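Give me the fold.
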Amino acid sequence: MRKPLFALAVIAAALAAPAAQAQQKQIKSVGITLGSMGNPFFVALAKGAEAKVKQYSPSAKVNALSADYDLNKQFSQIDGFIASGADMILVNAVDAKAIEPALQKAKKAGIVVVGVDVAANGADATVQTNNVQAGEIACQFIVEKLGGKGNVIIQNGPQVSAVIDRVNGCKSVLKKSPDIKVLSDDQDAKGSREGGLNVMQNHLTRFPKVDAVFAINDPQAIGADLAARQLNRKNIVITSVDGAPDIETALKSDTQVQASASQDPYMIAQKAVEIGHDIMNGKKPAEPMTLLPSTLITRTNVKDYKGWQSPR
């Protein structure tokens, strides 16, 4: 007696399933090269990546290295990953354009490359914070605190894609309030606390009335607050981007830092590994750039914030 077609289809599917599973490529080795492992942001990113890799393959090797913002060092690290037979590389590019030859070399070796936190030319995909939105929400907070009127400084930083996007997001919000005057927007505070301190000292010496400051990251915001205290300047609303451990302390302390648009390095890494695993198995993302939303951390909600160092 002939079997029904449905039954034959079920049997065929059952026979095909083990073959499909066998074809699924497993992660065996992942190389990660990051700006600086002295920064808690990158420590959290590395932890997030390793946790996700181990979910896919508990025996996989994960090698996270600090490039220390040295392009040549990052090139050498990528060469090392290629030589060791890595099947995935996560790269926080020291220089988005200059890194391309190294990434092309890795891809020719059959390695999937995913950029994290900043753009990386030549990567198969990139995962980062929606930095335009982060700038928008940090500066919308300033607009609301000032009632749409006052003198604002945008404390700029190194001209990488993330910083440019944050500043553009901030400007797009501030320009909607004609009574807000931007006193300065082009001073590079180097992304550091010392830079934030020095630039803020110059601005406060130059401008007798400053109502608010948007700093492109948390270290600059903390430096700006320190400068204001040294010069005995008060009632300044300071906001930034990162949601770093230091800013959690600042928001809970007697500082003029009022808000920070958070990033989630742990989740950035988890998503990057997920996308990399999909690419390994022939499934490319709909868009090469994945943007994760930012959430504004303030004095009101900081107690509920799960920061970079929170257990996951």
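Residues 5-11, 13-22 have pLDDT under 50 and may be disordered.
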